[in-house]
Specification:
- It is a single chain.
- The chain is built from 5 helices and no strands.
- Helix 1 packs antiparallel against helix 3 and helix 3 crosses helix 4.
- By secondary structure, it is mainly alpha-helical.
- It has one domain.
Length: 134
């Protein structure tokens, strides 16, 4: 079947750009929340998983999410950032699946963020990025 709007296919690199900005700002926000209002909840979840020292792991996770979010917003090493963040989201999804009371978000949220990260891993950065498709 033919596309109803074939002219829009010329803007195919705009979709990864939009996804990259949305998920980048989301990860910056999630990392900031891990350092501020959700810090105690994350420390208790790491203690439940027997990861000691929990406060260190929470700070490290938050910094990785903030730096990865900044990399996605800037379009710098997008595929590497998307891969690392997809692994983090997958581990958070596993924690949420095993222990529903630990984290604040639900499974659908983590599945959606994981799918967007995988999409960026396969499609690249799109428009307005430092990454060049070769």
């Amino acid at each position: 079947m033919l596309n109803p709007f074939p002219e829009l296919l010329a803007y195919g690199l705009l979709a990864p750009f939009i996804l990259r900005l949305a998920i980048g700002f989301l990860f910056i926000n999630l990392g900031y929340l891990k350092l501020t209002t959700e810090k105690d909840r994350w420390i208790s979840s790491f203690n439940a998983l027997r990861l000691k020292p929990a406060a260190f792991f929470v700070k490290a996770l938050a910094l990785v999410e903030i730096i990865g979010g900044i990399m996605l917003v800037a379009g710098y090493r997008t595929q590497i950032a998307a891969l690392v963040l997809a692994l983090l989201v997958f581990s958070e999804l596993y924690v949420e699946y095993k222990e529903e009371s630990v984290l604040k978000r639900n499974l659908v949220f983590y599945l959606l963020v994981f799918a967007i990260c995988l999409s960026l891993l396969f499609s690249g950065a799109g428009f307005f990025a430092f990454d060049l498709p070769l």
